[in-house]
Specification:
The chain is of the alpha+beta class. It contains 3 helices and 15 strands. Strands 3-2-1-4-5-6 form a 6-stranded antiparallel sheet, with no helix packed on it. It has a 6-stranded mixed sheet with strand order 7-8-9-12-14-15, with helices on both faces. A 3-stranded mixed sheet has the order 10-11-13, with no helix packed on it. α2 runs parallel beside α3.
Length: about 240
């Protein structure tokens, strides 16, 4: 997934109201950027951190700048970390089309945002990807963005309580019960991560739902990303710790 234009360097002043961040550009101008991330962003909000912004060409946008990357030192050399939770799906779409993920390769069709699962108050969920062919059961793939790393080399999810994430696990388990295949794919926007684990202390309910779904046959995969100021691509598979 390539960025449409060159990213703009800035210095983080503060993130607030979840979706807003004040930053200082290189010429000293202070602007407010959009933050496409509803999570806690633990460890990714240090005042004075170097961040990278994209700028929309649309004159209609109230906030033309979006926060894309931040430089973080997890104990080694500073590295780029992706904070935009909208990016994992297009990253995975490119990876699926290229056959990068062996466990998900070879399906005849790939559909996105397909309705499935429970209908609550007239509304249902949409699975991120539905992989299909005539030779095997359909495969429902849900993608989760990961940007939390509190221990050396170990990325974690979630970084805040996620009732929606718990619901998705339950629905994937229901798909397995109906005879389909279901996969939870964690996309880690941290290149240095060498393992993945659940942040059970942050959301115990999600941890329990994950265990229940896994026991029911829902598969789990975790992949890092390769991040530069020009593009983000899927990196390598990493083990999932209990």
């Amino acid at each position: 997934m390539r960025f449409a234009n060159d990213l703009i360097p800035a210095t983080l002043i503060r993130r607030y109201k979840r979706f807003l961040a004040d930053v200082e550009l290189g010429d000293g101008t202070i602007i407010t950027a959009h933050v496409a991330n509803p999570g806690a962003m633990t460890g990714l909000q240090a005042e004075g951190a170097r961040v990278w912004l994209s700028k929309s060409p649309s004159a209609a946008r109230k906030l033309p700048y979006s926060w894309e990357l931040i430089e973080v030192d997890f104990g080694g050399a500073p590295e780029l970390v992706g904070v935009n939770t909208m990016h994992p799906n297009p990253i995975v779409a490119e990876a699926l089309a290229a056959g990068v993920i062996p466990e998900l390769d070879g399906y005849a069709t790939i559909r996105r945002e397909v309705k499935y699962g429970r209908i609550i108050n007239g509304k249902g969920s949409r699975v991120d990807f539905l992989l299909e062919d005539a030779a095997r059961p359909p495969c429902y793939v849900e993608v989760k963005n990961v940007h939390l790393m509190r221990r050396e080399d170990v990325a974690e999810f979630p970084d805040s309580v996620t009732a929606r994430g718990t619901k998705h696990l339950d629905e994937l388990a229901e798909m397995v019960a109906s005879g389909a295949r279901a996969v939870m794919l964690f996309v880690i926007q941290i290149g240095s991560a060498r393992a993945f684990a659940l942040a059970r202390d942050i959301d115990p309910a999600y941890g329990r739902a994950f265990d229940k779904a896994h026991a029911a046959g829902v598969e789990a995969l975790a992949w890092t990303c390769k991040l530069t100021r020009q593009e983000i691509t899927l990196g390598q598979s990493v083990p999932i710790k209990p």
